[in-house]
Design brief:
This protein is mostly beta strands. It has one helix at about 40-45, and strands spanning about 5-15, 25-30, 35-40, 55-65, 70-80, 125.
């Protein structure tokens, strides 16, 4: 189906739990009822703690042979700021690392082709 960079907005929801009942996998459900399974990476794992919150996420989307849509999240922004405590808010003004775009204005500066996908793309068609 697709293998391109997208920005989506939706609500984070749990789709799998570990043996202790802790959220182990989440998806983002958009207003158009598209569900994007969030791939297990650093940014994706941060979304585990944001179940029930609305986010805007940017990453690579792909579809498996079983028609599941997955998203490798590179960046995200929590849109429910009133639910985030003052200690949880990030200050991106001092973010000088080169690990990806810090906001929408410089997304074109990050070369997603150099990202190490590891085993994320196994079983996905492009």
């Amino acid at each position: 189906m697709r293998n391109n960079i997208v920005t989506i907005q939706g609500v984070v929801g749990a789709v799998d739990w570990d043996a202790a009942g802790k959220v182990a996998m989440v998806s983002i459900l958009t207003k158009t009822d598209e569900e994007y399974l969030v791939v297990d990476n650093e940014e994706g794992n941060e979304l585990l703690a944001r179940e029930g919150e609305e986010v805007k996420a940017t990453g690579i989307v792909s579809e498996s042979e079983s028609n599941e849509i997955s998203l490798i999240v590179y960046t995200y922004e929590a849109l429910d700021d009133d639910l985030v405590g003052e200690d949880d808010k990030e200050d991106d003004s001092q973010d000088d690392d080169d690990d990806g775009p810090d906001d929408e204005d410089n997304e074109e500066d990050y070369d997603y082709k150099d990202y190490d996908y590891g085993d994320y793309n196994k079983g996905y068609k492009y």
